[in-house]
Design a protein that fits this description.
Layout: E1 4-13, H1 23-42, E2 47-54, E3 68-80
Antiparallel strand pairs: 1-3, 2-3
Length: 81
């Protein structure tokens, strides 16, 4: 028998955004995270940087021309049980 637990942690920041990341933007960043992590894990990485221009409107704020610039990191933790 083989049993393994794999955990992916990630963290995003959008410095130009003066409020907490809203739900709509979080969904965009989460999807980008899954895509990026999948490609990097496939290439043998266990951690890496994240970068995304999230194009979404946030009530009360003018959306930058290219979208909200967000950056972060991800890391994979693997434990054989």
């Amino acid at each position: 028998m083989m049993k393994r637990e794999i955990t992916i942690s990630y963290h995003w920041e959008c410095e130009a955004l003066p409020v907490e990341i809203p739900f709509d933007m979080a969904e965009i960043l989460e999807e980008h995270t899954y895509d990026r992590v999948y490609l990097m894990v496939k290439d043998g990485y266990s951690a890496g940087e994240l970068f995304c221009y999230a194009r979404t409107d946030i009530e009360g704020y003018e959306t930058p021309k290219d979208g909200w610039e967000c950056h972060g990191w991800w890391a994979k933790r693997e434990v054989c049980l």
